[in-house]
What does this fold into?
Amino acid sequence: MAEKKLIILDSNKIRQMTDRIAYQILESNYEEKEIIIAGIKHNGYLFAQKLADTLSKLSKTKITLTAIELNKTTPLENEIKHDFKNLKLDQKSLILVDDVANTGKTLFYALKPVMEFNPKKVQIAVLIDRVHKMYPTSADYVGLSLSTTLQEHITVDLINENKEAAFLS
It folds into this structure.
């Protein structure tokens, strides 16, 4: 029997939420000369690309896109890869981006390399925020806040531009 998937966001809603989050980021960072958008690989980075593209269209502020790569299941067993040293992160605004925030574990560990620097501000943006936090993280910018059971799963497809969607199963 096929698993039933409920579409919770279609490509139009994802685009609207991306636009709204981009405006909120600009409002909160209007004095910044540069905003660094750091997407958590893989879907978080895809969402970060969308945000960076939208921000670049809306503002003359320099938008720098970068990636953070970590093992989401066992984050301490592997190196967390990033490019923060080359970005001169000190005294800059950083937006950490993921597609779905569930327990907060991925966001929590993705912040670890940021602590080696002295950013002016660190904020979190997510497309979907679930309310199962087990780690001390909260998103500053949220597309959709969704209460789900622990057994339910959210899948986000950001690869096919006109068929983007988020599913609950």
Remarks:
- The longest strand covers residues 121-130.
